[in-house]
Each structure stands twice: as C-alpha cells, then as structure tokens.
Predict the 3D structure of the following.
Amino acid sequence: MPFGKSGKKTSGGENNVKLREHWSGRLAFVLAASGSAVGLGNLWKFPYITWQNGGGLFVLFYLLCIVLVGLPIMISEITIGKMTQKDPVGAFRALGGNHTPFRFVGLLGVLSGFVVLSYYSVVAGWSIEYSIKSLSNDFSKIPQAQVTQLLNKEENRKKLAAAAFNEALKKPVPDERKAQMLSDAGLLENINAGGPVINKVFSENRDDLSQELQKNNRLEYYRNLFLNERKNAENYNTWQNEKLMPAYSTGMFVEFITDPVRTMSWHTVFMILSIVIVIGGIKGGIEKAVRFFMPILFILMIIMVVNSLMLDKEQEGVRFLLKGDSSKFTPKSVLDALGHAFFTLSLGLGAIMTYGSYLNKKDDAIVNSLWVTGMDTGIAFLATLMIFPIIFVYGLEPAGGGLGILFTTLPLELMKFPTGQLLTVLFYVLVFLAAFTSGISLLEVVVTYLVDEKGLSRFKATLIAGAAVYIAGVPSAIDTGSFLDYADKTATGIMLPLGGLFIALFAGWRIKTGLLKDEFIKHGYPMWSFNLFRFSIKFLTPTLVTVVFIYTVYSYI
Ligand code: PHE
C-alpha cells in the first residue's frame, strides 16, 4: 500500500479533519438530507405502491417500517458519520479497526451511490425534457393534421386498434362481425357457419384473436377497425381524450426515450449541474442549493396538492389513504413497504452517513434523524394526495404502472384543468428539483470518499467522480428499456438492503454500545427511547431486512 503506514495518509486524514467543512446549522443539514430523501421515490413510487397495496393498512405498516427500521438506521448512519467525521469507508475503519471487514460495506455504499446516480441522472433528465415540452404546450389537444400523421406510425395504429378491439368486445358484437374478425385472423374457415359455432370459436379464441390482431400483416385490418371505432364514437372529443391522446402521449414518450441524442443531452446537463453544485462544497455549494431549491419544492408541492384536493371533492384520495381496501394487503405488501422505506430515506449506501460527517460533533443526531424522516414521510403522503385525484381516482389505474405514468398519463390528466399547461410545467419542475437534490447527495458520497480516502482535492474529486458516473450512465441513457431497469433493480433491490443490513449489524453489534447510548443520554432523550432503538437495530432491523433481501434475490433469479 503506497500510503500504508507512512505518514502521508494519516496526515492527510488529520488535515481533512481540521479543514473539514460543516453545515452552518441544523436547518442546513435537515434541508440537505431531506433533499436527498425526497426524490422520485416519494413522488412516483410511494403513491403507486400505496394504490397497489390498497392504502389504509399498508400505510399503517409502512409507517411502522419507517419508525422501526428506517429511523434506527438513519440515527445510526448520522451518528456514525458525525462521530467519525469521515466518508463511509473511513468511518467503518475508524470505529471497527483498520482491518475490519466492515470497510467493504463502506465501499459497497460508495459503489451503490455510483450506480444509483448513473441512472437517476438519466431519469432526472427526462423531467428537464418534459418541463420544456410542457412550456411549449406539447400536451394540448392534437390537431386533426397530426392524427393522420399519428396513424402513419405502425406502432400507434396497432395500439389504437388493440384498444378499439378490446373496447369493441365490451359491447355485444354482432355475429357477422365476429365471423369477419375470426376469418380475417385465419381462425374460422367457414364464414357462414351458424351463430352458435361462431360464438363458440369466438369465445375460445379471444386471446389468440387479440394477439393475431397485433401481428404485422393485419395493418389494414387495424386501420379499418380503428376508423370504424372512431366513426362510432358518440362524442369525438371523448374519443380523442380517451383513445387518441394516451396513444399520442405514450408515442411521444417512447419516441423521446429511444432517442439517444436527446436522452444523452439531458443526462449531460444533469451531471454538469450536479458537478457545479458539489464542486462548491458543503457550505458554498450544497447548502446554497438546498436553501434555494427546497423551499421552491415545498411551495410547488403545496400548489399541486391544493389543486388536486379541489378536484377531489369527495375526498376519495384522503379516504383511500386512511381507510383503503385491506383485502389488497398481502405478504408482498410487507416487502414492498420495507424495501421502499430504505430507498425513500436514502439509507443503505452511506449518503446520509456522508452528510452526517459534515455535522459538528456536538450536534444532535436524534433530532436531525426525526426531522429528516418526518419530512420525507410528510412529502410522501402529500404526493399521494397530489397524485391519487389526478391519476388513480379519476383517470383510473394506468396499465403497467411503471415510471412511465409520470410522463404519459399524468400530463394528460393535468391538461384537463383550465390551468393545465401551468400545472404541467410546475409538476415537471417539481420532479426535477426532487431528483436534483437527491442526485447531489449521491455524487457527494463518491466525492467525499475520494477526498477523504484518496486525498484528492474536492475540485479534482468532483470532476473525476462526475465524469465516471456520467460514463456509467451512458448505457442507461441509450438503452432505457432494459439496462436502466436492471441497474435500478440491482441497486435498490440488492445493494441498498445489503448495505442497510450491514450498517444495522455494525451499529447494533460492533460499535461499543456506549457510543450510541451517549448520543441519546447527552441530548436528554429518555432511556426507553434508547432501549427501543437498541432492540430494533440489534434484532428487528437485521431480521426484517434479511427476509426482504432473501425474497428479492429469490425473485431476481
Ligand atoms: N431517496 C431518494 C428517493 O426517494 C433516492 C435516493 C436513494 C437518493 C439513495 C440517495 C440515496 O428518490
């Protein structure tokens, strides 16, 4: 090791301790750490899984996970960072001894930060594209001329025809039409067969028929089916809203994410912006950014929520959140809640530990943890109140439910408001800010590591880390479909829970109990709160996380 026992590393370390910047106060830390926690996880994933799992009971269970699993790890991460004043690798080494195997947990964290940022940046870039799209009013009604253009695309034709087909099946279909469909699809030899035969073949082949209709050689057929459907639509506007616009919007999204020039451009812009902020350091960069952006984020959030609540006259959103449908709560809901608790609180990779390392040693880790956890949970709830009325309650559950909802269904629903364009712009700026303040924290993990462990200057470290993450993000930007999903699944399903598990084991079993106890006692917290914390971090958290981890790995392979 070049700097093994020599003085270089140690003196570098000492210098870093001496020169280490600190947040200017509790507000700065809370804003930065909440900025990290509040992200796409809150705006998109939480409302989505809450809906899927039936609200009510799920929400209660989620809160339990936040308090019993999230909060103890948050307290541990902040305390470890603060006590050691070091990056995750250095922190584990400082508390566990130079050769502790736990230093690999720090390394895993740095690597996770690297991986998460590489695709997070790509998705954040989409929100920039969409802010601009909404500024130029791309989501207003499609003019007639564009309908023809739209129909020239094979993919759109197929999608519309499939939609029309399914729609048609909801109404009673005359026997001759069924016979025609079956014969066109090559599923019926004698088109004049009697009604009972036709009906039997039809019901037996419904799925095949639908699939057959999606094959390439039936394009003319789709076209006619589609045009017929349009002719039959009682109200052209309703038809346009319900069929054409979703296809148009989806087409627009697919076109964008499969255009590497545009996705790469926004990935580039996002990474440059993050680099600029992180180069400025804690006080001069991150703190300034969060002091400016977080209040805007809160205000935007409130505007959107008020707007949704006004739409939701029956308060269905609130009711669903509180009462919901407990029959949808299954064993998988338990895993969803627990897995999400990690991601949403930015735990398991040392992001919060890194931010914690810029706190003063005398700062109170517990109250800071409570603030950050509370803010994140509050924003997640507000997000459901914002999204439910817009998408789920009125627009009904969108197919697939992936990240695409934010970019396909949502803008259309927002456009139904009189102030639609403005709301859409505000919404994408909100998504961007949430992702940006999370992205910054991810870059900071890697940068702090390079500064503390490798002795680089912040300037150099940020450029190197930024450039490396930028390059690592290229496959996600280019191959959005599979690579991005794969990176996300690996990082959030495996790397973060694994990191969280080891952090809990380290805090519960490896560090001297006195250290964490002191943190509680020194700041006047009652003994029971420490005991509860100790029980969770020693037993509850590791057990629960192990269960989730095994399940995830099992469903992964
Ligand atoms: N907490 C962020 C979100 O909810 C994601 C994130 C995870 C950010 C880990 C930093 C570290 O979207």
Notes: Residues 1-17 have pLDDT under 50 and may be disordered. The radius of gyration is 27 Å.
